[in-house]
Design goal:
Elements: E1 9-13, H1 18-29, E2 33-38, H2 41-54, E3 61-65, H3 71-84, E4 90-93, H4 109-137, E5 141-144, H5 148-151, H6 158-166
Parallel strand pairs: 1-2, 1-4, 2-3, 4-5
Helix pairs in contact: 3-4, 4-6
Length: about 170
């Protein structure tokens, strides 16, 4: 039986640990080729090795360090994906941070704004980078991971809740 994502190529952000790594595992198990990214190079390489052990002989598992809130990093990530794969079929925007925890009037504003930038820009920039490719090819799927912060926000985690609601 052919795996459901055999021959499909996916870019998965925030995939060096947690939910992102689990998503990448599921994609590899379903037969997809994956390019994972995250900011932490050490964990990213460890995740790539772990996924490679799960992959089939013909599957590609690649990793590219990138901060998805940085336009230059995202352009480099998209270029790497298009260099590795003849076509990118799927973009999974999973990367995100909680940001500062505490009352809105006393949390570090720079950290609060950085969380918004990371979570919102980090979802929009990869879309902007790959949408022209998807349109040119007439195909592309974008999965935006928002999480419970948007629908059931927790007290004192306002940057996360606001940014995930925006996503």
């Amino acid at each position: 039986m052919t795996p459901p994502l055999a021959g499909r190529n996916a870019v998965i952000t925030g995939a060096n640990q947690g939910l992102g790594l689990e998503i990448a595992r599921a994609y590899v198990d379903a037969g997809a080729n994956v390019l994972i990214c995250a900011r932490g190079e050490g964990l990213l390489e460890e995740a790539r090795r772990t996924l490679t052990l799960r992959a089939g002989e013909q599957q590609i598992v690649a990793a590219e360090p990138a901060d998805v809130s940085n336009p230059d990093d995202v352009e480099r990530l998209a270029a790497r994906a298009l260099a590795i794969f003849p076509q990118v079929h799927i973009l999974v925007n999973n990367a995100g941070v909680y940001g500062p925890i505490g009352p809105i009037e006393s949390v570090d504003w720079t950290e609060w704004a950085r969380a918004m930038e990371n979570n919102v820009h980090g979802s929009v920039l990869p879309c902007r980078a790959l949408l022209p490719h998807f349109k040119e090819r007439g195909y592309g799927k974008i999965v935006q991971v928002s999480g419970g912060g948007a629908t059931n926000p927790l007290p004192r985690i306002s940057a996360y809740a606001a940014s995930k609601a925006a996503v």
